[in-house]
Amino acid sequence: MSVLIFAEATKGQYKKNAFEAVYYGSQLAKQLGTEAVVFTIGNGSNAAVLGQYGANKIWNQDSSKATDSQVASALIAQAAEKAEANYVILSNSALGKSLTGRLGVKLNAGVVSGVTSLPDTSGTPCVNKQVFSGKGIACYELKSGKNILSVMGNSLKPEVVGSDVAPENTSFTEPSTGLEIIETKTVDGTVPLPEAELVVSAGRGMKAPENWGIIEELADVLGATTACSRPVADTGWRPHHEHVGQTGVAIRPNLYIAIGISGAIQHLAGVNNSKTIVVINKDPEAPFFKAADYGIVADLFDVVPKLTESLKKFKQ
Amino acid sequence: MNLLVCISKTPETTAKISFTDGDTKFNSEGVQYIMNPYDEWYALVRAIELKEQHGGKVVAINVGGSDNDIIIRKALAIGADEAVRVNGEESSSLFVATQIANYAKDKGFDIVFCGKETINYNGSEVGPMIAELLDQPFVSFASKLDHDGSAATIERDIEGGVEVVKVNGPFVLSAAKGLAEQRIPNMRGIMMAKRKPLEVAEASAVDEKVIVKSYSLPAGKSAVKMLDPENMDELVRLLHEEAKVI
To answer: What is the pTM of this model?
Structure first.
């Protein structure tokens, strides 16, 4: 018996989503009185840090095909078997989402993706996840002795509970597949939206793409990631990956500042799990105010620079 | 090309969410159902475009009861050539994936399309499960797909960007925004849909591994605090001291 955690590396580095998965898995292992085994694919040399978040052992398999779900799921399944794991924990990231279902079938295990808290293991285990795009919570009963859980980002705060653990290399069998990874195109230097704790988002109220300077300045002072509403991404004012909402990225940061966004229900579906929502809109009837914690009815071109100034003062 | 598109039925996006039977079932009273937007707008339309480009056929598949026929007819009206409904209650992602994989396994589909998630259970589980059951590659969150008849080049959304992959041979894909543009069925499509074949197959039993024990609603938000636009220092103070987010 053990908990196996798949920790995902992003460009060879372990980041928040990996720490969250490891911390969740180590807390679960503690709850079950067993050990937390972390498995990584690709860059073992940086994996020692995962010990700080509770890994008892770290195994690494050298492979360049970590993002091919057929390869990664085959390797994780072999690690799970070696560890005799009854829980496999992943991040609910783009990669994690392509693995949970596969692993469930491969290991003949139950699957719950996007869990928001540790399972209650006092009786038949039960775990919560959000459903209906955040408008409901479902408690899933885990009827199988083996379960695959993926952890929703920002649903727990990883804490340092241990120290570095030296990774051991594994030599599991890597299947050959029909998929070839050509290249990865990502924006450097910013925290990707799903991992961001602070988000500044703007919509059609900005009137034109050249007006985004005040948004970027605010995000810069705050250390926030920028986002946008669907119409803004659709018209090409902002890049596609910045679009948050039902059809874009769903996020749950600690702070979401919505500027010049009316708050259509499809937009809210992607952001309504943010811990604190600030809405700036000149229309007092904008539906977003109903979902907000703090609201400001004002011309955004007037109030956003003022907020930036106040934040600069606060940061000093 | 021989293309299979998995379509799911979901409550429409603005539906009020509540639960019944001691919070063990979704309350469907007064709820309008639609085809899951990712399935309809992106997966189905891109499959139809590929058929228009390369020839072949598009089969739409749904797992559910006869109530679902209305959304299956819509898929036919948009341009699917034929449809199959596996008759059974869509009780879990494993149940649905098993039915679809059983149907697809000996029919030689070049691509099995799914939406990136359903908007009710948000699991993204069915696509990878089908891929595993069929032992095929899976490409999640595809926002661009080109196919030259033998190999596909796909851009898939990842955190903060895209990954470009090439796939030889059959595969399963989940469709994200950008893969295609929504198509509205026209009158001719709607009339033709009535004459297109809709096969009903019986579901096979699945050993369920997870079940929803109960539902609840998230804690309600407290009322919004409206602030003076002239006093942004106050907002900063509240974010720091009250909300504790900065």
So the answer is: 0.92
